[in-house]
Amino acid sequence: MFRFIAFRILQFPLILAIIYVGTFLLCWVAPGDPFQRTERPLPPQVAESLRRQYHAETWYGFLVYYPIKMIQGDFGPSFNFPGRSVGQIIKDTLPVSATVGLIAMLIAVIVGTFIGTLAAVYRSRAPDWISLTVALVGVSLPSFVVAALLRALFAFEWDWFPVGSWTWSPKEMVLPAVALSLLPMAYVARLTRVSMIDTLSSDYIRTARAKGVGRLKVIFKHALRNAVLPVLSYIGPATAITMTGSFVVETVFQLPGMGDFFVRSVEARDQTMILGVVMIYSSMLLALNLLTDIGYTFVDPRISVS
Amino acid sequence: MTTQSDIPAVDHLWRRMLANRRVLFGGIMLLVVVGLCVATVPWTLFHSESRYHFDYQDDMLPAIAPGWQVHSDPLDQTSPLVDSRAYIFGTDKLGRSILGRCLMGGTISLAVGIAAAMISVLLGVTVGMLAGYRGGWVDALLMRFVDIMYGLPYVLLVILFKIAFEPFLERALGTKASANIVTMFVAIGLVSWLTMARVVRGQVLSIRSQPYIEACRAMGLPQTRIFLRHILPNLVGVVIVYATLTVPVAILQESFLSFLGIGVAAPMPSWGSLAAEGVSQAFQPYRSSWWMLAFPCIFLGVTLLCLNFVGDGLRDIFDPKREAAKI
Amino acid sequence: MKLSRLILATFFTVGWASITLRAADKADFIFVNRGDIGTLDPNRMSWMQDIRIGYALWEGLYALDPDTLDPIPGAAEKIEQSEDNLTYTFHLRENGRWSNGDPVTVDNFIFAWKRMLEEPGDYTYLLFYIKGARAYSEAFEKDPKSAKWENVSVRAPDPRTLIVTLDNPTPFFPDICAFPPMFPLNQKTLEKFKHFDQATGRTTYDAAFATPPNLVTNGPFMLTRWQLKVGQTLTKNPYYWDKQHVVSNTIESLVFDDPLLALQRYERGDVDWLAETSGDIAAQLRDAGRKDVRIFPSFGTYFYSFNCQPTLPGGRKNPFADMRVRQALTMAIDKRPIVRNVTKLGEEITSLYVPPTFPTYKRPTGLAYDVAKSKQLLADAGYPDGKGFPTLKLIFNTEFNDHKLIAEIMSRQWKQKLNINIELDGLEIKQFQTRLHGKDYDIARASWYGDYNDVSTFTDKYRSDSLNNDSGWINADYDKLLDQALKETDAQKRLDLLSKAEQILVTEVPILPLYHYVNKYVMRDNVKGIPLNPRNMVVFKKVTAGR
């Protein structure tokens, strides 16, 4: 077990290095000058001076220089927001995205599992249809439409939840978290449904029922425990993705989160920002994947991590 | 427990699909939508003087609400009526028929979805089979590659790929419109094959360890024959299911790109770009042009819902053991 | 209400009761800026929203009059101009103070200007009107050690006197002195952010100096809070020399990327002024008879640019090299649908380039909408009824939907009226900028906002040697007229020369002018101190919400 974890952790730097180089190359082939921040073209001399300030005169220079700084914890100044360092931006925005993302995942897992179980138990009957259709709305409409609808109804029309301010109050997190939870919820519901159907048809459940164990008790105590396994492997990476923020939700609800910054930095070719965010994102993904694998062994002792 | 005998015979499959209400309902609705979009292409795409044409602009009819009667001058109730069937879903800001644009947009969106599914089948199945069947270092290498691709945020991949390669393609293909659509196909296809590769690999691994494959080996059958006759057919179900589920994801990804302003090139519409335009118009404080959002979203929502129904239903059908489950 | 309670109860059973909303103490004036601040380092400030905050925090040698935005003495209390308009002598105020109490001295200006020339940014070129500044900047870029600062005509005979000599009589120099690139910096407070590279002889400063609590400024306000993507708080500078005339004690600037969201906050009463809103919203508020939406001319023009080089990218034959083709395409466009259906705000459709905001400037005559003449011109150029005209591409940036809609109207009209095919090529902004500035296009969407209050900020763009001239149009007469204007000391004669130059431009049409921009404010009636000025700038000194 420990050997396995140690081995996986030792792999991290290698994988991160490859992701770094990949991202870097993508940034570099994409046309567009990150220093060109207004409609006016920059005089070549100014562009040169700025490039020097970012150690980006040559691509190989930057490729080598930046990781060294990054390891020292200095992500450098942002190209597009020169007044802020990338480290500062991430430090300010990641907690926001992570909080909202975690709440969203919580909603997704609780509601999704519930819907999936309901659908499996009442398979091919009305509750199955209704609950799955509800869950699928999240993956059948673009997120910007769903988020805008939520905002129009609950914030603009009825004024139940404040939007567009950020004071870390739970009331502000409700709408973004719900909007963000719809996509993972649909996946969790479907995965639970399929694996629940499998589990419910297995012999030990039938035996339990035959022995007179109550229906609800069988479903929630015996079946669900096994049925969540495939869900678990989805939750890991999905949490990493949700926690690093979504451009759409953050734009619609004006959250000071990281997802919005990331997409803008891609648009602005803000290389330090892109690289910084990708590294954070990949590290979180790797860590959560590892946690998922470890979590597996606890839920189901039959599975060995190696 | 998949064995060769478990693969349902073809007629059996059909019967089951018809019996599965989810697939039946979803399939019929899908056929209707696809049929509508494709059958109207002569008017929406080619006949540029038709009011249904996706770029037919009537300067006098900007943002007209849906209705049966449309006056040629919307402010003057005595002006003559124009051919209003085209405007039954209303018009957009430039006086173009929402109906025509929805139908044309559907063709584009579905094409994006299908192309992405095809790319993901091609790449995903190849990589997945190679990894699962060859095993060893090939497997390790390919799967680490898949892991890394998962590690890169797909927004970055799609945006940068699109930006970096569209100019090249434009030079190769000659026209902007075709280059734009092909890049869109490839960019979205490139990020959607990863799941397929993982699933196929898993399936191959489990089939490979089945007793009947070992029996084949023991009988001295050639590798290619084992592969083609005994492994490949067992993958069909899983591949069809995931391909069906890739289509809606790809269509949504296109809509996200449209939201960012880098989707299908104007004036060509897609459901995503229509919805993105509609979303900015529908929630205005005094004059809501709700029809610019509602109709594209109904088309999009119904299609995606049906695709998901069909995909989920097919998954049930290809996995016969699940039939029995009732509690 | 019941449902909301239910949802809340489900999601936040734990902790809901314990956390109560912090009652925020409301600032004296709250407005929504155009977007998030990029930087407050005067060297790199280039976005509208940065500059707007900059005016509240700093004061140049000249400041802008809060009502008229004309330059008035700022950090300098007395300014002498030489007879030939070439030399300015600034006498600094005795009571000028930084927000940490330090006196404002001539060194602060020299330090900031020197730094600007050594580590240049978007607006460094505005300093090049000073004699020797451009040469110094270029020399420093080549070799920092051999560049001679003494060659720049900035002299300080004593700590409160600054003498600046210019190359040419530049009537708008006072205006430039009020602009962010000329702001002073307190070098003492920058010391701890300094990195000096021994090997190259270059000095750089960590961007953290321009964030609170490090930023020290000399204007009416100081920066006390800067929350990323949320907003900034400006607090009255207790050491400001004219603090008794600063009306509001605190000003809050908010960031909203979505104009609908900003409007909602305004309607709720949380905000006093929206510095910008979308065309759709402004049009609807106006049509609903709301008096709090103010639509007034802006300092910019929206136009299309033709590539006028001998050949198009890829060595293709360029029909636009022929002036008649450009004129034909210009005269074929009916611009009314654009302002009626797309921008909707009654923008002035135009055949001219310079916006109508200079009262003493005589506006030339442009090409009117005339389809028959346009067809004739195209036939004369060898393309009767569009025959033989190549399929060309129109590039535009896609992050604003209006650009797309306008492009769709244009291409449709050219097809209908001239039977020529112009394909649309929507590009993501960075790609668009690269193609436009690299003259790698056939037709491009473009626009221009003036930097300083003078016609030359527009006309200079199309000089043949200008970096901003991305049409590739070269006209010796045009250049000559601008050169004459540069040396001209009489204000009216100078404007007439520029007017003649613009006449050439709008006759030869390297650009196809469409309309002049408007500014759109949503502002409560009791708000005072925000002038409706085309240049869209505000000096926050007199601003009050009147609550």
Structure description:
- The complex is a heterotrimer of chains A (306), B (327) and C (547).
- Chain A is mainly α and 306 residues long.
- Chain A contains 13 helices and no strands.
- By secondary structure, chain B is mainly alpha-helical.
- Chain B is built from eleven helices and no strands.
- In chain B, α4 runs parallel beside α7 and α4 crosses α10 (271-282).
- Chain C contains 16 helices and 20 strands.
- The longest helix of chain C is centred in the C-terminal third of the chain and has 18 residues, at 401-418.
- Chains A and C meet through α2, α4, α6, α7 and α12 of A and α1, α4, α7, α13 and β19 of C.
Percent helix range of chain B: 55-70%
Distance N to C terminus of chain B: 21 Å
| Fraction of residues in H or I helices of chain A | over 70%
Number of helices of chain A: 13
Distance between the termini of chain A: 8 Å
Q: Which ranges of chain B are low-confidence, i.e. pLDDT below 50, for 5 or more consecutive residues?
A: 1-7, 322-327
Largest sheet properties of chain B? none
Structure in a nutshell:
By secondary structure, chain B is an all-alpha fold.
Tag the structure with descriptive keywords.
heterotrimer, A: 306 residues, mainly alpha, 75% helix, globular, B: 327 residues
Topology, element by element:
The complex is a heterotrimer of chains A (306), B (327) and C (547).
Chain A: H1 2-29, H2 44-53, H3 59-71, H4 86-121, H5 126-140, H6 143-157, H7 170-200, H8 203-210, H9 215-227, H10 229-243, H11 247-253, H12 258-268, H13 271-299
Helix pairs in contact in A: 1-13, 4-5, 4-7, 4-10, 5-7, 6-7, 6-11, 7-9, 7-10, 10-13, 11-12, 12-13
Chain B: H1 10-19, H2 21-39, H3 41-46, H4 98-134, H5 136-151, H6 154-173, H7 176-208, H8 211-218, H9 223-260, H10 271-282, H11 291-318
Helix pairs in contact in B: 2-4, 2-11, 4-5, 4-7, 4-9, 4-10, 4-11, 5-7, 6-7, 7-9, 9-10, 9-11, 10-11
Chain C: H1 2-11, E1 29-33, H2 48-57, E2 62-64, E3 71-73, E4 76-81, E5 87-92, H3 106-118, H4 133-142, E6 154-158, E7 161-165, H5 173-177, H6 187-190, E8 194-197, E9 202-205, E10 221-227, E11 231-236, E12 250-255, H7 259-267, E13 273-274, H8 279-287, E14 293-306, E15 311-312, E16 316-317, H9 323-331, H10 336-343, H11 371-380, E17 392-397, H12 401-418, E18 422-427, H13 429-437, E19 443-449, H14 456-459, H15 476-487, H16 491-508, E20 511-523
